[in-house]
Amino acid sequence: MKHTSKIITLIPLILLGLSGCNESSKKETMLDPELVSQGKEIFRFDTFGDEQLWTDTLQLHNVVAGAVDPVTALSVGLKVDSEVLPEGVLQTVDLTDPATTITLLKLNAVVGLQGDVQEINGKDTLVSLGATCALCHSTVDDSVAPGIGKRLDGWANRDLNPGVILSLSPALQDQATQDVLLSWGAGKYDAYWNQDGLNDPTVIPPAYGLKDVALATYTGEGSISYWNAYVAVTQMGAQGNFIDERLGLNIMHDPDLLTEKLPALEAYQFSLNAPKAPEGSFDSDAATRGKVVFNNQGNCGSCHSGDKFTDAGTQLHYPDVVGTDPTLASRSLTGKYRTTPLAGVWQHPPYFHDGSAATLLDVVEHYNNHLALGLMPSEKDDLVQYLLSL
Asked: In what residue span(s) does the Cytochrome c domain sit (predicted)?
């Protein structure tokens, strides 16, 4: 299985990646607007040459052209950017025809995918396909229809099913690989599987609220640019450089289409603020009481500290302290978990790295039991309302 999985270097988990986890620094990072603007284009549209994987190896451009109509694309979590669509186009096209998907790719309307569409013998033909950071770390607001609307960069696409998408590749049809890919489910991906051969997917994390968060990933391996490079090169198949002696990786490309773009990409990610809780989505009186529980009886603030709600700037935590499944930590370089920043936590269930907590109440119940906090039902409810307000 490990040999087969080496073929797969897929998808942004810039993803998996970018679930930052650090205490904010003393000095706030100032962002260069020009660099942020460049990074926005990179985040949304730059494949870093990963067509060498998606097209040349996985042959997914042929799969899309022959079998993936818009209805199918939406069913596996792909999103459509309504703001680039000509007026009325959705009312006039056949959403059950793969040719319509090619039209959407030509319009640059499929979030996170870049297709080279050329006219061959009088017909639009998908010549190549690549993926960008936005595939996993953007969604849409569903303002036109489910899966169709305005972009929401930085929001984890928890509808995306990377395993199903990969399972369509002619290069990945052996049964062992199919079993792994189809076991992941929507909103999950394993960014280590093609390295260690183990199967333990994690939920795709959001890419917002990361400014002044020094570490990235659920296990805090390194900076955001470090993880962007790891994911781009080892997962997306980018033509870039990635070196980490700890992992035994020394991957070089000439030309390097990635490294010089990392500062701009990071700047754009740092510009993405966590979304504020919608008005009326929580009980403000209960949230006020819940803040007291958070900082006192619940002892949450001992780890979720500072304005970033994380202590990962100073420490990581062994699995037995956290009380969640230790597998991911055991596969990581740190052997520990980071404390996840909480801003915008209302927006991205399920929770914990493996999605084992469906709701925030499940999270509270977990720690109430694991740490023997002795919270009363009313205190747990108030704490949930406070978390929903962040």
From this structure: 285-390
